[in-house]
Amino acid sequence: LARLTSTAQGKWAEARAADDVAAFLPILAEVVALKRQEGAALAAGGDIYDAMLADYEPGTTGADLSAMFGALRPGLTELRAAILERPMPKGVSGTFDETAQMALTAKLAQAFGYNTEHGRIDKAVHPFSSGSGLDVRITTRTNPTDPFNCFYSTVHEVGHACYEQNISRNYLLTPLGRGVSMGVHESQSRIYENQLGRSRAFTGWLYGQMRDAFGDFGITGEDAFYAAVNRVSNGYIRTEADEVQYNLHVLLRFDLERALMAGDLQVGDLEAAWNDRFRADFGYAVDKASNGVLQDVHWSVGLFGYFPTYSLGNVYAGCLHEALRKAVPNLDSQLGQGDTSAATGWLRDNVQCYGGLYAPRDVIARASGTAPGPEPLLAYLVAKFSGIYGL
Q1: What is the rounded distance in angstroms from the CA atom of residue 152 to the CA atom of residue 155?
Q2: Dist CA 391 CA 389 (whole Å)
Q3: Which one, 46, 212, 267, 269, has the greatest CB density within 10 A?
Q4: 212 with 186: CB under 8 angstroms?
């Protein structure tokens, strides 16, 4: 499997560059066959996909996720349709010096509590967080016409990094000394990036910082800037999607890969199934394979069961945000000053410090006071985007 996925990743990259699905599907079929064998061995008579999920989110099942996501999907598609009937807010314009971007992104990382005495920020092709304990490093990237790519990639990775940095030092170098699951990890990166970093209060502060750093960039006023940060628009790419549409991209992948592992979907039918589901959820057709079934690397390297943790992290973040707002009622006044310490301190004390001590859903339930469910996330999205778009 290791040998095959090493080859498959290269085949995927070539096929993606050429928009040639047929060049990739034969080796993907081999990967799927081996992953099903591995899953059957690990499941010991149980569900193959559940065995794969255990690598990333211990204690959850495909049935649990299917029910959770099934409750989330109709609300997301309805909200998306309503938003796209409204005029799109104006975006930023101009060229943004990349050295100035990195200077401001370092300020953002510090504002969200990233400890550079035990980490560092570097540029790379793809943003990432790596390490744990006393050495947790992040990367970000710059685009001269899109500063938000840099800023929000940084805040996202800082969420991951702060989780690792804030685990109790009593647990360092033990099995408890890492984040407990991919879903809980993603909850930290997403709440830092979205519920905090894209909030009206924090973007008001960021607007002033950007004016100081870049001068006029085509947006007048904090409300217009808040709308620009949270624009919803059509697109094919999961990693570039806004808060409303991101989970629809993930749910598509979850359903398809679960069907692949169950044998209900054959690799030869994967592209058609992808395109049909995309049209159903987004209302328009995939234009090319690199914007569709070939866009992600995950399946080529055998990461089945990974995709749903992205949306599970968003669901967890919704639960945590609801509890955080109750615990810190004056949160917006602090965020409006660029001060996230009350929010990040609450997350440190209620989630991050425990590392692997509790099971993933227990971590969220202990912090939020209720079993994780999609309702808080959907309520947050409806309230936020109804305000922005006048729904």
Answers
A1: 5
A2: 6
A3: 267
A4: no
d(CA 349, CA 283): 43
Q: What is the pLDDT of residue 126?
A: 83
- pTM of the model as a whole: 0.96
Phi (first) and psi of residue 176, to 5 degrees: -90, -5
Q: How far apart are CA 78 and CA 60, in angstroms?
A: 27
Which residues form the catalytic set? 157
DSSP 222-257: HHHHHHHHT-----S-GGG--HHHHHHHHHHHHHHH
Query: What structural domains and CATH numbers belong to the chain?
Result: 2-60+248-304 (no CATH), 98-235+311-389 (1.10.1370.30)
DSSP assignment of 156-191 equals HHHHHHHHHHTS-GGGTTSTTSS-S-HHHHHHHHHI
Burial of 53 from C-beta contacts in 10 A (0-12 / 13-18 / 19+) = buried
Q: Whole-angstrom Cα distance, residue 367 to residue 320?
A: 7
User: Which residues of the chain, if any, have pLDDT below 70?
Assistant: none
pLDDT at residue 239, rounded to an integer:
87
Cβ neighbour number for residue 122 with a 10 Å cutoff: 10
Residue with tokens 């936020």: 384
